[in-house]
Design a protein that fits this description.
Radius of gyration: 24 Å
CATH topology of the largest domain: Alpha-Beta Plaits
Largest sheet: 5 strands, antiparallel
Number of domains: 2
Order of helices and strands: HHHHHHEHEEHEEH
Structural class: alpha+beta
Helix content: 40-55%
Number of strands: 5
Number of helices: 9
Low-confidence stretches: 166-193
Strand order of the largest sheet: 2-3-1-4-5
Mean pLDDT: 79
Shape: elongated
């Protein structure tokens, strides 16, 4: 219970706003009446902190939160630089312990997947392990070429998003942990793959 007393009113306001992305966006655009919002949030804040607050204290907390939110102009700049968005679903990710033979397995995978137009293959090598991301149609091939390698973990039913920027070369932004349902929700039901 002491943690609630130690939490600042601004942190509590941020927490309440995280529950409503639309309200957060409207606050960032400056189209919210802070006094009215403060009166709405005040009872929840007082219940959380077990003490009373003035409307002015809540308004100041809202202003602090608002100052840290991206403006409409900043979001517009980002959206104008993105030329296209590609979403792939039915992706699997395997993590293997690094070994002297793993690079050869990766070579075999690339050679065999080379002629497949829909092939999706990504490698990420770390100090101790290597992540291999492929579409589900290549999963059997991946399992065949990595026989004898130590599998650490695998994930199925993943999606990734790739953006192409106008002024720069292609930039890959992977989020392999994003479930397909979230991807569909974000893109309004559209999930390629």
């Amino acid at each position: 219970m002491y943690t609630k007393h130690m939490q600042t009113i601004t942190a509590s306001v941020e927490q309440l706003l995280r529950e409503s992305p639309w309200l957060t966006e409207a606050l960032g655009e400056g189209i919210v009446n802070l006094s009215a919002l403060a009166r709405i949030l005040k009872p929840s804040l007082e219940k959380q902190h077990l003490r009373s607050f003035t409307d002015g204290a809540v308004i100041m907390a809202l202003k602090r939160v608002q100052a840290g939110l991206p403006t409409k102009r900043a979001r517009l700049r980002v959206s104008q630089t993105v030329q296209s968005l590609t979403v792939r679903s039915n992706i699997v990710q395997y993590a293997f312990q690094n070994s002297p033979t793993l690079m050869k397995a990766q070579e075999k995978l690339l050679q065999r997947a080379h002629d497949d137009e829909d092939a999706c293959v990504f490698f990420a090598r770390g100090t101790f392990d290597t992540g291999i991301i492929v579409n589900e149609s290549l999963e059997d091939l991946l399992q065949k070429v990595t026989v004898g390698e130590k599998l650490i973990k695998s994930f199925r039913g993943l999606s990734y998003i790739m953006t192409t920027e106008l002024a720069q070369k292609k930039v890959f932004q992977a989020s392999p942990g994003t479930p397909k349902a979230t991807c569909r929700r974000v893109l309004g039901g559209v999930c390629a793959g």
